[in-house]
Design the sequence.
C-alpha cells in the first residue's frame, strides 16, 4: 500500500503544473485611473445644453483636482458616449476597454420648468459593473451642487472616503471697498458676501458641527470676535474684551473655542465657551501667542509664539499643560493648521524674502515644502477630508485664494477676480 | 484480546531500513532515467535570436524589427552597388530600352548599358529582392582600349566600397559601444534566447495594465501576491490571490490589472499549463 502511495506521489509531482519564477511589479504603470466623462444627455423634456455643460464642467474640474484620474479626451469617444446608459447592461464596455478606460461616468437629465432631475452613474469597465449611481431632484439652479455631490460620491466609491466638493470656503475680500467676509463654492463659483461691516473683517473659521462662522471685526472700533449663522444671517458678538479678540477656532466638539486675547496686556491663548464666557487661560508667557489650531482629538493646540525669539510653531498639550516647540531652525513660522486626520500640520514660513507653505508631522519629523516660486503663500487651511489645502497668495499680483492637493500639486486659483482675497477657511461637511 | 494484525511478525529495524533504502534508490534511479534517458519527449530549442527591447517599459513583441544592424544586413549588397540597384528599380515597361543599346558598342562602356545587354532578364518584375548584377560584365566590353579605364573604374569603386564599409563600422560603434554581434534587447542577453523573454514581457504587461492612484491608498507598504495560471496556448485560465494586501483599493486595482490578461495571450505559448507568481507592491511609487 505504501509503495503505491509513494508511486502516486511521484507521479503527481511529475505531472504537477510547473510554476515559473516570481515576478515583481514594483508600482503601477498608470498612476491615475483612466476614466471617461461622457456628456450628460437629455432623458425627458427639452434638451438643455447649459445644464449639460455645467454638469460636465463641474465634474471635470472636481475630478481633475482630485488627481485620481486621467480623463480621456472626449474626441476619442465612440458611439456609446452618445447613448444614455444608466444600467450596466446598456453600456458597451468593450468600446471603453478599447479606449483604455477603467471607469466611465455617464448620466442623463430631465428639465421640466425649473425642475431638474439628474441621474449619474459610475461604471467599472474592467469588471463591467455599476460602482455607484445617484438620482438628484431639485431646481435647475442647483445643478452645480448636484454635480459636486456626485463628484464626492465618485471619490467615496473609489477611495472609501467622500470628497469635499460639496463644501464651502469662506474668505475675506475687499472687492466691495472694505474687507468683508465671503463664501464661495470649492471651485470658486457663486461667491456670496456674508457681512456688511464697512470696516475690517478678518480671520474666519467654521464651526465643525454647524453652518456657523467665527470671525474678527473692527466694526465697533476694537478687534472683536463675532459669530454668524450662515443661513439665518444672524450675527452676535462673542467676545469684545479690551484689546485683541482674534484667531477664534472652534474645538472639534464645537463646545468651546480657543482664541487670542490681549486683555491683560500681552497676547495669550484662552479657552472660551460658546457663549463667550472665559473658561481657561491656556498660556502665560512674555511673548505673543496667536493662531491656535486644534488637533482632531481636541486635546492639543498648535499655535505661534515668539517666546524663544523668532515666531515658531508650538504644541500645547491641554491635558498635561506641557508645551513643545515644533519648528526648528527657521526664522519665521506662522498660521499653523492641524490636518483633520491629525497626521500633519500645515504652516507658512518666511524664507528668502517670501512665505511658502510647509507641512510637518506633529512630532516634528518629515517636514515638506509644498509651494515654491515667487510671491507669498500664507494662511493654509485643510479640506475636511485632508486631501486638499486652500491658501492665499499674491503670486499673481493681487492677493487671491488658491487650492492645491495636500502634496502641493495641482495648485489653481479659485477666488474671483476683483480686489484682494485672503484668509480662507474650509467648512466641514456641508 | 490482541488483534490479529498484531500477531504478525514485524520487520526488524535493519530489514525495514534496508527496504526503505532500496525503495528510495529505485525511485531515484527511475527519476534519473526519466530525465536522462530518451523516455520523455524533448523540446528542441530553436535558437533564433529574438529579444525584448525594453524601451519606455513597453513590452515589444517583435523587437528585431527595429534592430539597426539586423536591418542593415539584407541591405549590404545593395549598398555595395547602388547603381545596379537603382537600375533594377524602374518598372518593367522601361526594360526593353537597354536592349536597344548593342549597336552603340563604339561608345565608352558604362556599367548600366553593358549589364543590361548582358542580362536583360534582370529587368523582370521581381528583381528588386534578388542580388543586383555585378559590374563584372564590363569585362566583356569589346573595345580593348577601354580595359584600362574599366580597371580604373573598378578600382575607384572598390575604394568607395571600402570607405562605405568603414563609415558603416564607425556608425555602428556608437556611444553605447554596440557592435553588430552585440546582444540587442535584454541587457544580459546572450543572443541565443528563444523568443522574447516571457517573464519580462508579462511583468511589463502587468505593470502597464495596473492603474492605481497614490491618492487611493494611504500606505506604501502594501503588497499582494497573485498566482496566474496559463493554459498551453498562453491564455489566462485562472488566478488567485495567494496573499492580499489588506487594502481593498489596492487589491481591486491588482485584480483589474490581472483581468486585462484576458484580452491577450502570452506571446510564446508555453505548450503546457503553467503557473506564474506575480508580486505587486508600491516600492517604486513616488510621493
Sequence:
Amino acid at each position: 500500500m505504501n509503495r503505491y502511495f509513494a508511486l502516486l506521489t511521484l507521479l503527481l509531482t511529475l505531472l504537477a503544473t510547473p510554476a515559473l519564477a516570481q515576478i515583481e511589479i514594483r508600482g503601477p504603470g498608470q498612476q491615475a485611473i483612466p476614466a471617461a466623462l461622457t456628456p450628460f444627455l437629455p432623458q425627458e423634456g427639452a434638451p438643455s445644453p447649459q445644464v449639460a455643460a455645467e454638469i460636465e464642467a463641474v465634474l471635470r474640474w472636481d475630478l481633475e483636482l482630485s488627481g485620481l484620474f486621467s480623463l480621456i479626451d472626449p474626441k476619442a469617444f465612440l458611439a456609446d458616449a452618445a447613448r444614455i446608459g444608466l444600467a450596466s447592461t446598456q453600456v458597451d464596455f468593450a468600446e471603453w476597454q478599447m479606449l483604455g478606460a477603467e471607469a466611465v461616468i455617464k448620466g442623463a437629465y430631465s428639465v421640466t420648468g425649473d425642475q431638474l432631475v439628474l441621474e449619474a452613474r459610475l461604471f467599472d469597465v474592467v469588471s463591467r459593473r455599476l460602482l455607484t449611481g445617484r438620482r438628484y431632484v431639485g431646481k435647475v439652479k442647483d445643478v452645480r451642487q448636484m454635480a459636486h455631490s456626485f463628484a464626492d460620491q465618485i471619490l467615496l466609491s473609489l477611495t472609501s472616503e467622500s470628497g469635499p466638493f460639496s463644501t464651502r470656503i469662506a474668505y475675506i475680500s475687499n472687492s466691495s471697498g472694505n474687507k468683508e467676509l465671503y463664501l464661495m463654492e470649492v471651485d470658486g463659483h457663486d461667491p456670496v458676501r456674508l457681512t456688511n461691516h464697512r470696516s475690517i473683517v478678518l480671520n474666519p473659521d467654521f464651526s465643525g458641527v454647524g453652518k456657523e462662522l467665527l470671525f474678527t471685526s473692527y466694526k465697533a472700533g476694537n478687534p472683536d470676535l463675532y459669530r454668524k449663522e450662515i443661513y439665518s444671517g444672524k450675527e452676535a458678538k462673542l467676545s469684545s474684551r479690551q484689546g485683541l479678540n482674534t484667531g477664534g477656532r472652534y474645538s472639534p466638539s464645537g463646545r468651546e473655542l480657543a482664541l487670542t486675547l490681549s486683555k491683560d496686556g500681552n497676547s495669550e491663548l484662552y479657552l472660551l465657551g460658546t457663549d463667550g464666557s472665559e473658561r481657561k487661560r491656556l498660556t502665560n508667557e512674555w511673548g505673543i501667542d496667536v493662531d491656535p489650531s486644534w488637533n482632531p482629538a481636541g486635546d492639543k493646540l498648535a499655535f505661534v509664539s515668539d517666546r524663544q525669539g523668532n515666531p515658531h510653531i508650538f504644541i500645547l498639550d491641554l491635558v498635561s499643560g506641557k508645551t513643545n516647540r515644533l519648528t526648528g531652525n527657521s526664522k519665521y513660522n506662522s498660521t499653523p493648521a492641524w490636518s483633520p486626520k491629525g497626521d500633519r500640520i500645515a504652516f507658512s514660513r518666511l524664507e528668502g524674502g517670501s512665505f511658502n507653505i510647509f507641512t510637518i508631522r506633529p512630532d516634528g519629523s518629515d517636514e515638506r515644502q509644498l509651494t515654491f516660486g515667487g510671491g507669498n503663500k500664507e494662511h493654509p487651511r485643510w479640506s475636511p477630508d485632508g486631501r486638499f489645502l486652500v491658501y492665499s497668495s499674491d503670486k499673481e499680483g493681487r492677493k487671491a485664494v488658491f487650492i492645491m492637493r495636500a502634496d502641493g500639486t495641482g495648485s489653481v486659483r479659485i477666488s474671483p477676480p476683483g480686489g484682494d482675497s485672503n484668509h480662507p477657511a474650509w467648512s466641514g461637511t456641508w | 484480546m490482541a488483534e490479529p494484525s498484531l500477531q504478525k511478525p514485524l520487520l526488524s529495524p535493519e530489514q525495514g531500513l534496508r527496504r526503505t533504502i532500496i525503495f528510495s534508490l529505485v525511485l531515484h534511479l527511475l527519476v534519473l532515467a526519466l530525465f536522462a534517458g530518451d523516455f520523455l519527449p524533448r523540446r528542441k530549442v530553436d535558437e533564433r535570436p529574438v529579444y525584448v527591447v525594453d524601451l519606455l517599459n513597453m513590452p515589444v513583441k517583435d523587437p528585431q524589427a527595429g534592430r539597426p544592424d539586423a536591418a542593415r544586413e539584407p541591405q549590404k549588397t545593395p549598398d555595395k552597388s547602388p547603381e545596379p540597384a537603382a537600375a533594377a528599380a524602374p518598372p518593367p515597361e522601361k526594360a526593353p530600352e537597354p536592349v536597344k543599346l548593342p549597336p552603340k558598342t563604339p561608345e565608352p562602356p558604362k556599367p548600366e548599358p553593358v549589364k543590361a545587354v548582358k542580362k536583360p532578364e534582370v529587368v523582370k518584375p521581381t528583381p528588386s529582392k534578388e542580388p543586383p548584377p555585378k559590374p563584372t560584365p564590363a569585362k566583356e566590353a569589346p573595345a580593348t582600349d577601354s580595359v584600362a579605364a574599366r580597371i580604373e573604374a573598378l578600382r575607384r569603386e572598390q575604394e568607395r566600397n571600402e570607405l562605405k564599409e568603414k563609415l558603416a563600422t564607425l556608425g555602428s560603434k556608437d556611444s553605447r559601444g554596440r557592435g553588430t554581434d552585440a546582444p540587442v534587447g535584454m541587457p544580459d542577453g546572450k543572443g541565443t534566447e528563444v523568443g522574447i523573454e516571457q517573464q519580462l514581457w508579462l511583468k511589463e504587461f502587468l505593470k502597464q495594465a495596473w492603474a492605481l492612484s497614490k491618492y487611493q491608498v494611504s500606505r506604501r507598504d502594501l503588497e499582494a501576491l497573485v498566482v496566474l495560471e496559463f493554459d498551453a496556448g498562453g491564455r489566462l485560465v485562472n488566478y488567485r490571490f495567494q496573499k492580499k494586501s489588506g487594502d481593498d483599493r489596492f487589491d481591486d486595482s491588482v485584480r483589474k490589472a490581472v483581468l486585462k490578461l484576458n484580452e491577450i495571450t502570452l506571446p510564446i505559448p508555453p505548450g503546457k499549463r503553467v503557473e506564474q507568481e506575480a508580486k505587486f507592491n508600491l516600492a517604486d511609487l513616488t510621493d
Q: What stands out?
A: Chain B is about 35% helix and 10% strand.
